[in-house]
Amino acid sequence: MPAYNKITSAAAEELRACVSTGRFFFGGEADPNYTHDEMPIYGRFMPEAAVDVETTEEVSAIMKICSRYKIPVTCRGAGTGLVGGCVPLYGGLVLCTRRMNRILGYDMENLVVRLQPGVLLKDLAADALSRGLLYPPDPGEKTATVGGNISTNAGGMRAVKYGVTRDYVLAMTVVLADGRILELGKPVSKSSSGYSLLHLMIGSEGTLGIITEMALKLVPNPQCDVSCLVPFRDVESCIHFVPKVRLANLDPQSIEFMDADIVSSSAAFTGSPIFPERVANTAVGASVLVTFVGTEPDELDRRMIKLGEIAKEAGALDVLVVATPSNKKAAWSARSSFLTAIEADTRLIDEMDVVVPVDRIPAFLLYIRSLGEQTGIRIRNFGHAGDGNLHIYCCSNDLEEDEFKRRVKIIMDAAYRRCAELEGQVSGEHAIGHAKMAYLRESVGEDVFALMGGIKKVFDPDMLLNPGKVCDRERRTSC
Amino acid sequence: MPKSDYKNMWVSVEHDGTSAASVGLELCCELRRLCDRTGDRLYAVLIGPLPEAEIQKIADCGVDGILTVRGTGYDFPNIDAWTNAFTVLCRRYRPSAVFVGGTVFGRDFAPRFAIRLNTGCTSDAMQLDWDPETTDIQFIEPAVGGKIMAVITVPELRPQIGTVRPGTFRYAPTGKRPALERIDELIDFDPAAIRVRPLRFTPDENDPELDLSDADCIVCVGNGLKDSEHLERYRTLARLLGGKIGCTRPLYDRGILPYKLQIGQSGVMVKTKLYISFGVSGAVNHTAGVDADVFVAVDRNPDAQIFSYCDYGIVGDMDEVCDELIAQLRAKMAASV
Amino acid sequence: MLKILVCVKQIPDVDLVKMDPETGNLVRAGVPTLTNPLDLNALEAAVRTKERCGGRITLITMGPPAAEETLRECLAVGGDEAVLITGRPFGGADTLSTSYTIVKAAEALGKFDLIFCGKESLDGATGQMASQLAERFDAAQISCCLTIEDIAEGRIRAVRALETGRETVEATLPCLLTVEKDNFYGRLPSLGAYLAAKTAPITVFDETSLPGLDPARIGVPGSGTVVPKIYPPELPEPGQIIRTGSVKTDVGRLVSLLAEKDVI
Which CATH number fits domain A346-440: 2.30.110.10, 3.30.450.20, 3.30.2350.10, 3.30.70.2740? Predict the structure, then answer.
């Protein structure tokens, strides 16, 4: 059982010397936000010290010191995670990358961008766009860092057409727990060259090493885009429509699902009811938002016409077009506001981010709804219908926190079991952190879970990096 | 008729039969200064009578005369009778300019009698100037979202008509003129010809959070705000300072805060001790609505125009600065307890 | 059947319009255009009225040929026919001459019972057009409308927003209305209507085809106002910028300055 040491003032002075003035915080100086991410329900944990790093060399120097003193290190970006992934469960040092926010350069011939991990997703997206390029991964949280996206293998809306973060990482610089600096991957699109440590790093949530620089693949930005909102009477008919869209060879960029509850929460929250709650005097039970991108408006029209035909057969109430810049902006901001709209009118919140095969979405949602009714917990959900990734939120305003947690555990235990029966995954894009570890273990089984633990030991024998996360079940104490 | 045949300036003073609307008094005070330069006489025009004490209040603003219209059709404010009255009066007296308070009602009827008189009408001037060469009034106002100032004139037609928003000019009476001319006009308008009739009026519920008029401190949030999620910290700061939260027009347009909290020319004009802006660019339309003893600006862009209006400025991330300010104010309070 | 007119305008994205520092002119070239957002609220009010009472919606705009895009956008949402007034002589018009021109064109199409307008355009922002159109149509006028309660027998009953409350009013037709945006959020177009609008015929008037037009009353000659000068706002001297290098000390400095001034 590894034991950690507290950060002594001697260790603190050594750490302070690694960075310039004003970037090392000891004791009470650390930002109180470092105790949690966006899900404070999973607990708050105070670090003993925090440091804002700026270079690979600084990270390396800091890791050498922490490795010598056996100080646990938790890497953190913008703190927008949802599974307690960046919180310092065992105290120690929080290493924050928010100041490593420089885009280092573009290779316009090979469509590659080099950047530091603390660049925010929205800043990368805007900067790439100004050069006519698109960084396809598009998770809803635009103020997350790109480093955080890589650490969780974030997905997002465009995954239907473009895939996920993993598909766009070509190379990275990594600092290991003992301070060694590795270059993984090459800025090329193919590799058949031994075990891919690069891909092992992606989605490892800061438990195997600290990413300090990366090279990402970009694509030319499609010249035009249009979205169709397709409303249905109920969730079932809405979801049954999704595989039909995929089979029709329409190449949608995204297929987003939203039920009536989330639409009305978002309308109340943003003040712009862009997604209708009634169509032709019928209440809308659920809608999908299908987005097409291309080079010619006429070609997009053809795809929309085809979509219209399928929608009619599937019993859609209508097909509505989101084509003007202001409607696109309103639709986009309404869709992006779903989580914050839930947070705004909810005191206690917990969430799951499962993926199930697309045809099993209705079964899973109906099951969740019944669990909510049985336990008296308000359920809100939305998600990426095109790939079966669902975001499900358990909410309450009147329960005591302990009682809320008790009831949510009943829902979560049952829901993850059902998810496994439906051949689904524990997390599509939010990752495991410490909140979902037990469910991961149950889902993958003991053999796989133990192999994960073995890999962790190879990279980080002293278990210094982000302890207590993903597959690390050891209880330990600080001395 | 040459424009030199049109003389004197008028202010339509809106009233409810008991007191004059403040915008009418503000306009009289401002027009007094203009008339001192042009040599025009200044008249307040009242539709329907006002008590003598209110008349004296208008006289204190330096008007040379008061023109009161009596007759049928004025029992309640209505566009038809008012448009008719001003059309008849302007044809009869040929004023060089008519100013109307930019209330909902004023903005409804002033452009209409401008059409009937076939003359030019401007709205929302922030400054008034006068060109002695052309004898034209210069209506100066922000345009294109406050990026530029535009000078607008009515070069040929008369009268020159302008609506001006409440709070644009200061109510600063300069005192009575030696003699106050009183004119009474009888203009009957057939009540049956009034096309819009009020049936019911329901006053808005008085929500103190939505009333910025008495706030000692205002925390104003601008378009730099990422989304509604980030708003709460500014409410917290406002509460800590014993103040209220306000916003700029884009935030109202984005549906984030209600219209009554929109500060600026097309919203509310505020007078306060401490004003702190976060993520406000500083368009003239907004800053024209702020009268603060101490003006603090926080914005990411060091070249933002807002820094020209502030007493103290901090260049930085608005959320970060707000959080830090909250933390330090709390610490300060804890220390002083 | 109600005959409904909706007046719309294509405007430049004012956030992107810049002033040329050399010439002092506004640079609009290459600036994206959009339909004035408040006009879409007016259109929504018209479409709801048509859904409830029946009727035919005519869209009208004056502008460059590209303003056709705005008409097609509105046709997709609910217009039955669309009219574009375009031509060089109409350029540079203020509200006096624009209202004259629009009413001339509308008269060529017949009489309207209801006219809907946005409260103002985000570019010109005079807020005068609605009143001046109402005057020229010789119509009653209800501005800042919150809800339309009833339309029957040549009368309309509606609730409107005033400075201190809500007023229910009744007016005779023809009547012009401007609407509050929050109550008339615009809908998305249906796919069928969206596609149909792309090729729908649009009536185009120019200075030669508009019947009874007095050339002295359009464009610049017909305008009452002129803009002899624009200039950047005169800025006061910048205040004291606190710049210590860290947020913490910046704020600390500010707090002590505010305490000195006795405002906290």
Answer: 3.30.70.2740
